Automatic annotation (TrEMBL):
MF annotations from Gene Ontology: acid phosphatase activity; metal ion binding
InterPro entries documented for this protein: Calcineurin-like_PHP, FN3_dom, Galactose-bd-like_sf, Metallo-depent_PP-like, PAPs-like, PAPs_N, Purple_acid_Pase-like_N, TAT_signal
Pfam families, sorted: Metallophos (PF00149), Pur_ac_phosph_N (PF16656)
Lineage summary: Bacteria, Bacillati, Actinomycetota, Actinomycetes, Micrococcales
Originating organism: Microterricola viridarii
Protein name as it appears in the record: LPXTG-motif cell wall anchor domain-containing protein
Signal peptide residues on this chain, from the entry's feature table: 1-35
Amino acid sequence: MTTKDTVRWHRRGVVSTALLAVLGGVLAAPMPALAAPDVPTEPVVTTASTSWKYLDDGTDPVNGSGALRAWTAPGFDDSTWKSATGSFGAKSGKLAAVGPHTPATLLNHYLNGTAAPTVPTYFFRTSFDLQPGVADAVGSVLGDVVYDDALVVWVNGTKVAGFVDDRVTGTSNQEYAGNSGGDPVASSFTVDPELLVDGTNTVAIALYQDRATSSDIYLDVPSIRLLPVQDPGTPVVAPPTRVILTPTTTPETSQSFSWLAGDAGHASGQVQLRPAAGGDVRTVDAYRAGLVNNNPKPHYSATVTGLAPATAYSYRVGLEGSWSEWKTFSTADPAATDFQFVYYGDAQIGLDSTWPEVVRQAEATATRSVGSVHAGDLIDTGSNETQWNNWFTGMTNSAASSNVMAAPGNHEYSGDKKLAAWKANFEYPHNNPSTATIGALADLAVGDTDVARQYAAYFAHWEEFAAETVYYTDYQGVRFITLNATRDSAFLTPATLPSCTGAECPSGKVSRLWTEFQGAWLDQVLTESDSKWNVVTFHQPVFSTSAGRDEPVLREIWVPIFQKHSIDLVLMGHDHTYARGYINDDRTETAGITDGPVYAVSNSGAKHYSLETEAKNVWTNNNATQVLRGEGVTTYQVIDVSQGQLVYRSYLAEKTANATTALPIGAVYDEFTITKTDAGKKWVTEAGITPPVDPVDPVDPVDPVDPVDPVDPVDPVDPVDPVDPVDPVDPVDPVDPVDPVDPGTLPAPVDPATLTEQNRGGITVPATANPGQTIPVELGAANANAPVWPWIYSTPTSLGKATANASGQISAVVPAATATGEHRIVVQAADGTLLGWAPVQVVAVTPGGDGTDNGNGNGNGAGNGNGAGSGGSTTGGTTGSATSNTGALASTGAEISTALIAALALLLIGGATAVVAARRRRAAAVTVSERDALS
């Protein structure tokens, strides 16, 4: 960056120089040097704090008097214009959502106020002030805008930016311009700092409709920021954003990093890292991954090799003088088998509200997660930088500390047919399909025929296009595979395609061939996999769930490959509903147990579709069973991996008023377990069903009736077997005819296999409970005063006979010996009829307080506040009598800030409290740092 020139100083300094000359003649004594003025560190324009004057009635702001753009200059009289803070917009004349954005201030949409034609152009003005000397200290000006349909920006009367403004003629202030591009678009701009002056600076904007019948209009100016002049050769201090970790093919010894530069002038990038335990800092150069979506800031990526396995590293990205904060990650441990990962469906809508809350809940639940898989549609429009910013903001902590494995969805292609933004934001392994990895399919491209040449052109194009969208990585015994299920001839057709005529030409079956191209590669990748577990993720589901959708090509080509290799999990999105199930051929003789792939569709955003009707159910019409399906639900999934099992749990993060579940937010929505021996024998069991093989059998891992297995629940010679109904010497057998404590009327427990999603409900219990805790069980008024038998499963254990009160409620004690984890409360009528069941999470009592709520508000502490009680800490972020960590942090920060202000006031009047104030300042700084880390 160049230093300020003398012309600029002269322009701003004439008055100052004259004044100094006068003062120099008056003041003979030397004066101390004045401190250089500071450039504002906060944005000078923001959405919330900046008031705009605006004209939205369709009139010309200069009305023929004066220069055409006189309204953009300082001093223009806008006193009769309206005034409000942003954002601004309208949808069909109303204050409603414009794409993913909802304006705060309604603009007049139509010239007559009620119907088309629309107002062609809207005019906005605002200003900000700079103290004397500050303008010269500004080195760069950065602005962000979100608009629909076109935009021009002026500063102090000079045009500084234009977006989709090629139709702006400059002959009239009122004119239509821009293109109908769907949702509002986010862009950034820079301003020559030479345009700034000390005193008042004016920002003016013209916002254009593209046509007289346009259905919406939108403007937001999230920020305009000033950055100080840097020494020659020193980069602008603007830390990188969108910092993300992505896996390599060798996550034990290498790691990939990507980020967005903090400033358009950052012409290089680096990664610095060191062992978290201490050691030398290593610096690795990054490559420039491109400029996309009219964002002037470049993307950078780097892959660091030569790392030590199972080692924690600290790192930062950026360049000298403008680094990110230090973050921490760990390389994979080849000797470890136990970890978690998170599975997200579409984020897409609600990126600034629903999405960050879903991720927050997932981070709180999956504390051992090594990463996340994403089934596409991370955003709604691939060319919209605001949406990308919001997605990355939601993932700030997770993305910077654990690997992100994402599949592109159809919305990543919206406005970005070549996936330029995707490939700039992410760095994935380049082990995608090629003619060397698609088996016999590659033979179609061999030869001099028109058909072969066309196949060769497609395959060459797809090899390049599939890079970073079709890939795999192996992590501690799991092979994670990502596919690209979107099929559109526009981006699948090479720029130069050899001519070919006839039915054999591939140009007539591009969509199918693209699916086969990946399928052949997938078959080879699974054949060669040495991993015990195999998980595949892609966007469009092979078994559609929402109304009107079906993907027969994907199902025909990919499902046989999944079945052939008995892949463990097939994770999908796209349908904005939830579903999970299996192919009917994988049923076993035991209800609740299958032995093939599990297919799941999930939704992690605020967009919801309706379920398909039973008559048109794609699953049941194609030899598949939906164990669970639901609409109006937003979920995330946590998968616990161990040597012998994958335990899948779906958690309810948000739901609509029309949701098909009565479960509370935070509850386990769906659950199953995959148990697999090292020899590859597999069982998929529903919650509460015991697999035929005990994965932790210390004697014989495959003998289901080992008579000396101390943990075998069906051991015929175990004298304390809790499920042996005829063991005459079992002292805890409740139906033992010789048991002196046998109540004599206890019905046989309900078969766990009959507890399905169809009969779930009928009772209500807290989401969590402690061993030994008394919990309320709501049976409903229909069961008032009725005698009932409550049980706790997995292994059915009677909780004793109870009689409901007049409100239909009983109390039940969770046995003190109950293991932590997922259980079910089951209630039977006196005659043994099932009244209902509900899941409950049994969690350990947290030490340090006089009671722990554990997230349900009904624990021993019995509190229902927001973290303000005293005692131990809650889990899950809700409160009983314990103190919420989040609440305590916010409270402490407020108390410290108040104390600090008081201490500073005492210092100003001569109070002798410096030591105490300094101590409190340090405490406040720690609190703010911790708060920022959590935000």
